[in-house]
Design a protein that fits this description.
Oligomer: single chain
Strand order of the largest sheet: 5-4-1-13-14-15
Structural class: alpha/beta
Radius of gyration: 18 Å
Number of helices: 10
Mean pLDDT: 92
Number of strands: 15
Distance between the termini: 26 Å
CATH architecture of the largest domain: 3-Layer(aba) Sandwich
Length: 266
């Protein structure tokens, strides 16, 4: 069963917080208990904070609007997505390049903003993110382009993600058939890629030793923090259950039931 651990003074005095969203702040369109209080505490305490999500479906503006619908007011400057990390990485590798995209507007818009154009004939990259429109014809065309020389990119390696209906396939699961059919391995720009973590720290304006990362996944959030030298909090409100933690060769610094437990007790 979930364990009860009071957050230590070390957590409360950290000036910078990087938090995942799915499974930490909400499940799909349902705000998780304690999320509102956590965001209020970040603001009232003058913390620097950034919501870092491996989801590529929505832009920062759309994420801000989603939280507003759920009752939270958070400015667009407090969001950084795997779509943005992917676009930044590709811009550094192939400025003005072309992509065939399997994904939603949050991904295509980030690529457009980075100077990329869409090309379904001879693109430099096949870029895959989360989308409900994934189908066999799209898969077949992506495999064909990769076999012709396009490089395969995934926004994030998550195989599953939490929603209010339960666990659903995520980008890693959508990329896998393309990898298997083409024989080519994808490069993932999202967590736990250190590139995304460095971008997050830059956007946050904090040193890694002054920052703590909050997430619900051992295989992305927690390992991302460990590899970047950032302290980690695993919350048990998303994908990872307490019984899963021992299956990993690394451990989080703290395990809490939810973000509500981060708030110091009065």
């Amino acid at each position: 069963m979930p364990i009860e651990i009071d957050p230590s003074e070390e957590i409360a005095k950290k000036p910078g917080f990087i938090s995942d969203m799915d499974g930490v702040i909400y499940h799909g369109n349902r705000l998780l208990p304690g999320a509102e209080e956590f965001v209020d505490w970040l603001k009232a305490s003058g913390k620097k904070y950034l919501f870092l999500t491996n989801s590529s479906q929505r832009s920062p503006r759309e994420l801000s609007e989603k939280l507003k619908r759920l009752g939270l007011t958070v400015g667009v400057e407090h969001f950084y997505t795997s779509a943005m990390a992917t676009a930044a990485f590709l811009e550094s590798q192939c400025p003005g390049g072309t992509c065939f995209v399997i994904g939603d507007p949050g991904l295509t818009n980030a690529l457009y903003a980075a100077g990329f154009s869409m090309n379904d004939i001879s693109p430099d990259y096949v870029v895959v993110g989360e989308t409900p429109s994934y189908n066999y014809e799209t898969l077949k065309h992506a495999v064909s382009l990769v076999l012709k020389g396009a490089k395969l990119i995934g926004t994030n390696p998550d195989v599953t993600g939490p929603t209010e209906q339960g666990i659903v396939p995520a980008t890693g699961a959508l990329v896998a058939p393309i990898e298997m059919a083409s024989g080519k391995k994808a490069y993932f720009a999202g967590k736990p890629n250190p590139l995304m973590m460095r971008s997050a720290l830059h956007a946050l304006g904090c040193r890694r030793e002054d920052t703590i990362i909050v997430g619900d996944r051992m295989d992305t959030d927690i390992i991302a923090g460990i590899e970047a030298g950032i302290e980690t909090i695993l919350v048990l409100s998303g994908v990872t259950q307490l019984s899963d933690v021992g299956n990993f060769p690394y451990q989080p610094h703290y395990i809490l039931n939810s973000v509500a437990d981060i708030i110091p007790k009065a």
